[in-house]
Write a structure and sequence with these properties.
single chain; about 210 residues; alpha/beta; Dna Topoisomerase Vi A Subunit, Chain: A, domain 2; 3-stranded antiparallel beta sheet; 5 helices; globular
């Protein structure tokens, strides 16, 4: 009897090579293809790996549903949203993208496991990565500015909001992190401009 499944997602390396695949069966159980390498592999929502070179920012979420919801909320061609498929693979995904695109602005859309008895695995993993990479910031799901327990997709599925309200709250939750990255880029540009002005002034004075 053939295996039936509800969804199937390919996972590729930063170079576009197929490394693994994940499927969700009729019961909602997630499985990866056997004997495949999941480390550093990821799925880009509504795009391909080649699109990364045109992106201004990348948002990384754990699961596909979360990534898809964020992508729908942001609806921004300059931002590519990626599903790393597990908390353990977020750092590998950041590393792979940063090595290929060193100046890429990366935002981790962390799962905020506030009610998890074993600790806030999602947020802790995201913060650990942020501490290692200067180009990374972390965002957590919020409703009306207040942190909620769960992931960004839970804003839509578990809090009784209309679809429009939920998408707006996802936007607002992501906005500070994306704005921070933009401000960081502007700051770098200002510093470069000031350096150029300083060099020109020194040339004039030395004549």
């Amino acid at each position: 009897m053939a295996l039936s499944f509800r969804a199937y997602y390919s996972r590729r390396s930063e170079h576009g090579r197929l490394k693994s695949a994940q499927y969700i069966d009729e019961n909602g159980e997630k499985r990866f293809a056997k004997n495949t390498n999941k480390v550093g592999a990821f799925h880009i929502v509504d795009g391909s790996v080649s699109d990364l070179k045109y992106a201004k920012s990348v948002v990384i979420a754990e699961g596909y549903a979360t990534a898809a919801s964020i992508n729908e909320a942001l609806n921004n061609k300059d931002v590519k949203v990626i599903a790393a498929m597990s908390a353990n693979n977020i750092e590998h995904t950041v590393k792979a993208i940063t090595e290929k695109y060193p100046d890429m602005n990366i935002v981790i859309a962390a799962d905020n496991d506030l009610t998890n008895k074993v600790g806030n695995i999602g947020l802790n993993a995201a913060n650990a990565v942020q501490n290692k990479y200067e180009n990374v910031t972390v965002a957590v799901p919020k409703i009306n500015g207040k942190e909620i327990s769960g992931d960004f997709n839970d804003i839509i599925s578990k809090n009784g909001l209309s679809k429009d309200e939920a998408l707006k709250n996802i936007q607002k939750s992501m906005q500070p992190a994306l704005k921070l990255e933009q401000e960081k880029s502007k700051s770098i540009s200002v510093e470069k401009t000031n350096d150029i002005k300083k060099e020109n002034k020194e040339r004039v004075l030395s004549r």
